[in-house]
Amino acid sequence: xxxxxxxxxxxxxxxxxxxxxxxxxxxxxxxxxxxxxxxxxxxxxxxxxxxxxxxxxxxxxxxxxxxxxxxxxxxxxxxxxxxxxxxxxxxxxxxxxxxxxxxxxxxxxxxxxxxxxxxxxxxxxxxxxxxxxxxxxxxxxxxxxxxxxxxxxxxxxxxxxxxxxxxxxxxxxxxxxxxxxxxxxxxxxxxxxxxxxxxxxxxxxxxxxxxxxxxxxxxxxxxxxxxxxxxxxxxxxxxxxxxxxxxxxxxxxxxxxxxxxxxxxxxxxxxxxxxxxxxxxxxxxxxxxxxxxxxxxxxxxxxxxxxxxxxxxxxxxxxxxxxxxxxxxxxxxxxxxxxxxxxxxxxxxxxxxxxxxxxxxxxxxxxxxxxxxxxxxxxxxxxxxxxxxxxxxxxxxxxxxxxxxxxxxxxxxxxxxxxxxxxxxxxxxxxxxxxxxxxxxxxxxxxxxxxxxxxxxxxxxxxxxxxxxxxxxxxxxxxxxxxxxxxxxxxxxxxxxxxxxxxxxxxxxxxxxxxxxxxxxxxxxxxxxx
Length: 530
Known about the structure:
Oligomer: single chain
Structural class: alpha/beta
CATH superfamily of the largest domain: P-loop containing nucleotide triphosphate hydrolases
CATH architecture of the largest domain: 3-Layer(aba) Sandwich
CATH topology of the largest domain: Rossmann fold
Radius of gyration: 31 Å
Helix content: 40-55%
Largest sheet: 7 strands, antiparallel
Number of strands: 16
Number of domains: 3
Number of helices: 19
Strand order of the largest sheet: 1-5-6-7-2-3-4
């Protein structure tokens, strides 16, 4: 065969084979399906990178472009890096941490997956009238999308109870995503990020079961609902507010076990318990609890009530809301919509022959005046007020319009409280103290050889802390101190020195004792007390 003819034949054959291969590549259904799956997989992982906490905010654009072509590879690399960091901190193997991440991912998918029965929920939500969330949401008939929203709502509430969270915050991060955060042991942490449509649907579900107006997005609203998990029941208080990018929801998990606490359970020292028991045993006077929001004032108030004999003393409480039921106690819940306020409830209580009155919170001049006058006329009054210290509690009462004479004659004991996170006993480690920290401890008469710092393990979810304990500053108002208050001769500095002279230490000194005992860390004490 001549060379030109051979070249022509070879070129024709090569072109034909290329066209055949191209046609097979272009129209092969299996390869086409694989191409489409890969494209959608890349787009899905781009979305995961956008919402991932592992990717720094200033690197998200580059990560998104890379993920658009590489698919799951960047997330896999980030997962391995994150697992390696956690492995070096906790001592667990990298494979064990990766396996735990995979199990958590599967667990997060499962609630909205296939094959789950509608009645297989582990938790059920009810409004104050006893109607279930599913009944409220769709009158017992919910579609597939509605069921997904209901299950997501129930999962968030169930996870919060499982984590022993005190608050659930659902708020918009931007126009595309909502964040779900839990406050556990007084510290907020992000547990999930959901798309804006799901976030709005969850907020509407919680508002509906809380008897709130779901059409109102800007005006602040309040509500409440309950949840049942098996035989246990939990109560929740809900508040909504319109914010930038949407609506924010705050859910307070009420402490149902507060009614079982005693003075020893809450963390009071023996000398402090003796002062409180002596004040509770008297027929009149006021014990005033003070501290910021979430410092455990209500729990300590219930612990004081549990020291009383409910059969021989008529005990009436005014609360907002009622956190737990106390047997043989008359409990009144504040309801501003029905014009039931602290002041009006207190006026009616005084006509019901009470021996002990408990006021959930002193918020205004009228409530403060009625409570203090009641403590003068043969009633024991237990109350709380939002203030930072015992000294600022007196200033708070003066600011509300209470006269120094009324304050001095009614007050018996001031109790300031904070909650410190307890070090996890499974991963705490000896603290690496600087010379200044050692000198500071020695200057307060404390040893440094038993001081620990936070570690991090599975038991405490890598935080280094598990549970909380109370620290208290108690000031007993004797006759000399009351006279100085009545004559307006008491300064804040002298008030602090009086407490120290009586051997009743301030919050920082009490906290240092807990640090010396290895129960909490210096960092935690500084975070809470300063």
